[in-house]
Design a protein that fits this description.
There is one protein chain. With 320 residues, this protein is of the alpha/beta class. The protein has helices at 13-25, 49-60, 93-101, 118-122, 125-134, 148-161, 183-194, 211-214, 223-227, 263-267, 288-292, 298-318; strands at residues 3-4, 38-43, 64-69, 77-78, 91-92, 106-110, 138-140, 168-173, 198-202, 218-219, 232-236, 273-275. Strands 1-7-6-2-3 form a 5-stranded parallel beta sheet, with helices on both faces. It is globular and about 55 Å long. Bound molecules: N-acetyl-L-norvaline and phosphoric acid mono(formamide)ester.
Amino acid sequence: MKVFQHVSDLGNLNTALAEAFEIKKERYKYNELGRNKTALLIFFNNSLRTRLSTQKAALNLGMNVIVLDVNQGAWKLETERGVVMDSDKSEHLLEAIPVMASYCDIIGVRSFATFESRKDDYEEKILNQFIQYSGKPVFFMESATVHPLQSFADLITMEEYKKTARPKVVLTWAPHPKALPQAVPNSFAEWMNAADVDFVVTHPKGYELDPKFVGNARVEYDQMKAFEGADFIYAKNWSCPGVTCPEDYGKVLCKDMSWTVDEAHMAVTNNAFFMHCLPVRRNMIVTDGVIEAPTSLVIPEAANREISATVVLKRMLESL
Ligand code: AN0
Ligand code: CP
């Protein structure tokens, strides 16, 4: 595997899940595979889970790991070609990428949407430069539009906890004080469309996700109706994706607290499990009671990030 961006990059999903469970049972099974190979993890944005779980995954495979926080200690990077570099940016991505690539075998990059231009974000301008100019396998650790390591971990978790062969899965928007990216819901929708589940998305009007990810998934604007009989509730805030409202791209259109996932919402479900990628703002996205209930999967879900990252790095090592 040379790029990990979309669910399709894994090939057959059942095979990938079987590999994940094999690794979960015996996570050091492939600890010779990464000997003398180096993973470079580049963060343009903050992270707790991605940083730690991906480092742990590399260590499981016997790799060396280097982590770079671009905004803490490195030179400020220019990303646009053709600009006269007379501002505070000392180095261009076009030099920085091949230099960084020369020190490693596999590269992971986290670079969130900037919301400055929908076109640039949705064309994955930053990550595509890493793919084009590094000459190394590149995996996405949350880009402008996708977070595949998260969705893979989510799928593994659902596979472990599902009580029916084809569960009803509801992706619900929930309120948040700041504008957040669409990467997590985009990827989650893409992965749920590829998995064998009954998938429903619910959000206020104006929050329609890009058709590229949401496909033909059922959209239900009545949140309570969407929750009826659900087996999994996957909560996430996202800012306006600019599909029905291009001028509002990246804006907060709604702060309606009636969308917070609380006990009354969960009561109409089929005793659903609660999921969220974390970090989560309590009593904005979800009440203390729901996130602390035995049906909350947020911790096992985060733990499975180590497993999804181990599978991805293993596949990349095998392709070197
Ligand atoms: C990020 C987001 O919403 O995309 C990262 C989630 C994994 N969250 C925040 O910035 C709070
Ligand atoms: N879920 C997730 O990716 O968390 P971090 O932003 O802490 O890495």
